[in-house]
Each structure stands twice: as C-alpha cells, then as structure tokens.
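Attaching the record inline, Q. Sequence:
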Amino acid sequence: MPVHDPKSLSSALRDLREEAASTAAPYVEAALDAVASPSRPGLAGPAAAPDLTSTEIADLIDHTQLRPAATDDQIDQCCEEATQYAFTSVCVHPSFVPRVARHLNGSEVTPCTVVGFPHGANRTPTKAREAERAVADGARELDMVLALGAVTSGRYADAEADIRAVVTAARDAGESIEADVPVKVILETALLSTPQVAVASVIARRAGADFVKTSTGFASGGARAEDVALMREVVGADRGVKASGGVGTVDDVRRMVAHGATRIGASGSVAIMEERRAAADAS
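Structure, as predicted:
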C-alpha cells in the first residue's frame, strides 16, 4: 500500500521553504517537523487493514448528496437511507440544511453541510457568515473548503485566518445553542502538490480545525491512500482525517482506515453497506 517517501517529501519541503516568503517559513518548518519521525498509520506505512463490521463502517460514513441539481426527493431519500443504515451524518448543500434537520430530528444522524463549496474562493467574512447561518439552520458539522489560492500563492497566514474565522463562527454559534460543531477542512488534494498537502494540514491544525478532508468530489481526483497517510502524519492522532471522493467499496474503506482515516465521505454508502452485509451473510 503506497505512502509518500519521507525523505523525498522532506527534500521537497526544504525546497519550498527556500522559495517561501519569511512569513510562510514557519508553516513549512512545522510540516518538516511533522514528517521527521514517520509513524504508523502515516508515512511509516499503513496499519493492518481492519475487518470492519457493518456497524463500524456505518459509524465512519458521512452519507453525501451534493449534486448541484439534487431534488427534494433525493435529499429525503438520503436522510431515509442514513437513518436506515445508521450513518454518522448526512452532508448536503446549505439550502437543504433546514429540510435535513427536520427530517433527522430525533435520530442519531447528524446534519452536515459545506462552506465555501466547492472552490473555497469565497471571501473569509462570507464563509464565516455561511457557517453561522448553517448552524442556525440546524447543521451540526461543517465541511469547509480551504482557501486554495492562498495556499498555492504561499499566503499561508491568510489561509489560516480563513479557517480560523469559520472555526470561531461555528464554535460561537454552537455555544449559543449548547452544541459542539466540528469543522472539517477540505484540502482538495488533487489540486495541491504533496508538500502543499503537508503545509495545508499544518494550516488546518494551527487554525483549530477538527478534521482535514481530502476532496470535494468535484475536482480532477478524489481520496488517495498516500495523501490520507500524509495528512494523518501531519495532524497527529488527536485530529480527524476524512477520506472523500471515489471511496465506493468495502476494500476502499478498509484501505483508507488503514492509512489513517477516521471518517469516510461517500455518496455510494448504501452500496458499501450492502456489500458488507452480503459478505457477512456468505461467511
């Protein structure tokens, strides 16, 4: 199972440090420190792939319906599937959050929505206000998109401030209703170099995010095990890592968990569950 080579990554990070402005250097230094002593799961390689039960798989899954033209009926179906299979959350566009919150009221399934989706290019105050509105509408988890242009331009402090504004907005809004509102930061790893994925993970951690997440599902690629391992290495054991985009089988889930994922985003969640149940029935 692949992981990024720590020595090559450290060399690439040192090159990035040489190119970076003085204000960006501390972020690169933190990434270098994080990858200096590889762990497992992480850059030392995956842990043993777990033989997950149906319940354990369901507990990992954010059941997702983010199609741009999704209908009310499709949103309702997503909620019904989530309650039937006991998924952790239902993730939808912000406009559907009130509907989802009503549908899931009284269940154990958490309403989740996205912020700055799918490109992360909204201005920071817009993202913060979107987070506040989402919590008021009933969202209890937020998946925000990183300010990608800030990262690719080397403006790491701006990217950190962007995340911190959403984290603060979510926590303040949550405190007002006595709710915890975790924030996941979508790095869109397909659009970043490997050193940039490492630095983006540092940025998210410094900003107080609860998770880092691989992908929106709307870029050129989705979750890769080697990126999950790198993200796990950098954020450490006390933050979550969400693999999202192209995770469609039980083996995909097992591989991502072995590399450090603690949450899975999937639109094909029902197929994953039915595959696992069929395997259990056959054994």
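Residues 6-282 form a domain with the TIM Barrel fold (CATH 3.20.20.70). The CA atoms of residues 9 and 71 lie 44 Å apart.

More tomorrow.
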